[in-house]
C-alpha cells in the first residue's frame, strides 16, 4: 500500500491524473487505524451494530421503493442493490461506501458530518396540534488533515468482493443521491476491508481537498443530498407514517411523533402543517372497529407486531395450519400494529394494515391486503383490496390460480410479499404464539392489544 502526501491542489490533481482508469475512491476527514496500525475501513453495520426490527423495516421499504421507481428492478435482485437505499439514506448495511469520482471523495474528505435531534410543534390536516421529532443533518468544513483511499477493483474481485455501480439505479424522474454521488457499494464485508484492496492512501490538508472539490460547482451539500422535490427515493422515505411516542402515565397535553423510519434530513425546512397524505399513527386495531354490521364483522383477527410484516421468508408455501384455520373460520385477518405505506400509493390516504385470508366455496383460498384509510392523526374507512387466489393440494401446499376476481395491478413483488407474511403467520400458528383475548380476537405475546382512545373514537 502506497502512501502519498499532497500539500497543494496541483499535487493532488497530478496524482489523480496519474491513476489508471477504473479506480474507486473513499474520502474521510480522518483516518481510523486498527490495533496493528493498518487502516480500519468498516461498514456501518460493523461500526454501529444491528437493530433487527428496524433493519427489516428499512430493508422492506428499500426494496418497495426501488421496485416502484427504478427501471428494471423487480424486487428480487442482488443484496448490494437492495442495501443501497439503506446505506445512502441513513441506515446500515454490510457494504462500504465508495465513489468513482475523485472530486466527490475530496468533498467528503474536506467536510465533517454532523447531526442533532430537533422538534417542532405542527398541525395535521385537521389542524390538530402535535409535536414531531426529526434528525437534522449537515456537513461543516473540516480544518485538519483528510484522507482518501484509492481502491483496486482487481484486488476486490480477487477477494470475491462486489463493486456495484449504483448509477445503474436510474429512476424514471428526478435524481437520487446515489446517482449524484457516482456511488459504488463494496462488499459484503465482515470485518475491515483487507489491506491489499487499498492501492494508495492519500493525505492532504482539508483545505487542499476542499479546493480540489470546489473546481466542480455542482459539489455542494444541497446537490449531493437532494431534497424530496428532486429525489423520489427521499420523498418516499419521508412519506412513511410517523409513529406516536408512547409516554408513561397520563397524557402530557400533546402527543409526540417520531418518523416511522428515522433518517437524517439535510436542508431541513419547517413543516408548520401537513396535508391528508401524511399519517401520524396512534395504535389502533381494526379488530376493535369491525362491528357485526361491517365488512369484517365475522372475521377472526390475529394481532401482531409490525415486524412480522417486514420479515423475509423462505418461499415455502405449505400452510397446513392456515388451511385448517380457514376451513374452520372462513375469513381471517392478520393485523399489524402499524401502517404500511406503499410507495406507489404515496399520493393517497390508504395504507396496509396486514393481510386478509378467506376460504371460498370451491375450496380455494383468497389472500389479499387488509387496508385502512388514514388522514393526519385519524383513521377512517377500512376494508380489503383485490388479491390472489390459491388452490390447496393434499399436502397443504398453495398453488396460485387464475381467477376472474383476482387483482390485475401487475405488481408481482407486492403480492409475493403477502405470501411471505402468510408464511410467517403459518409459523406463528404452528408455534402457538397467539392467545385468545376475546371472541374472534387473538394476540401474540407482548402485543399491546388496546387501541388509543382518540383513534378508536375517530374510527367509531
Structure description:
It comes from Thalassospira marina. This is FRG domain-containing protein. The protein has helices at about 10-20, 45-50, 50-70, 80-90, 100-110, 155-160, 175-180, 205-215, 220-225, 230-240, 285-290, 305-310, 320-330, 410-430, 455-460, and strands at about 1-5, 25-30, 95-100, 110-125, 130-140, 145-150, 160-165, 185, 200-205, 240-245, 255-260, 265, 280, 300-305, 330-340, 350-360, 365-375, 380-385, 390, 400, 435-440, 440-445. It contains 15 helices and 22 strands. The mean pLDDT is about 90. The protein folds into two domains: about 1-110 and about 140-215, no CATH class; about 280-460, no CATH class. Helix content is about 25%, strand content about 30%. α3 packs across α4 (about 80-90), α3 crosses α10 (about 230-240) and α5 (about 100-110) crosses α8 (about 205-215). β17 and β18 (about 380-385) form a beta hairpin.
Describe, in short, the structure shown.
With 460 residues, the chain is an alpha/beta fold. It has helices at residues 9-18, 44-48, 52-69, 79-88, 102-110, 153-158, 177-180, 206-213, 221-224, 232-238, 286-289, 307-310, 320-329, 412-430, 453-459; strands spanning 2-5, 24-28, 96-99, 111-123, 129-141, 145-151, 162-165, 183-187, 198-205, 242-244, 256-258, 264-266, 280-281, 300-304, 331-340, 350-359, 365-375, 378-384, 388-392, 398-401, 434-438, 441-444.
Write the layout of secondary structure elements.
Elements: E1 2-5, H1 9-18, E2 24-28, H2 44-48, H3 52-69, H4 79-88, E3 96-99, H5 102-110, E4 111-123, E5 129-141, E6 145-151, H6 153-158, E7 162-165, H7 177-180, E8 183-187, E9 198-205, H8 206-213, H9 221-224, H10 232-238, E10 242-244, E11 256-258, E12 264-266, E13 280-281, H11 286-289, E14 300-304, H12 307-310, H13 320-329, E15 331-340, E16 350-359, E17 365-375, E18 378-384, E19 388-392, E20 398-401, H14 412-430, E21 434-438, E22 441-444, H15 453-459
Parallel strand pairs: 1-9, 5-11, 5-12, 10-13, 14-15, 14-22
Antiparallel strand pairs: 2-6, 3-8, 4-5, 6-9, 7-8, 10-11, 15-16, 16-17, 17-18, 17-19, 19-20, 21-22
Helix pairs in contact: 3-4, 3-10, 5-8
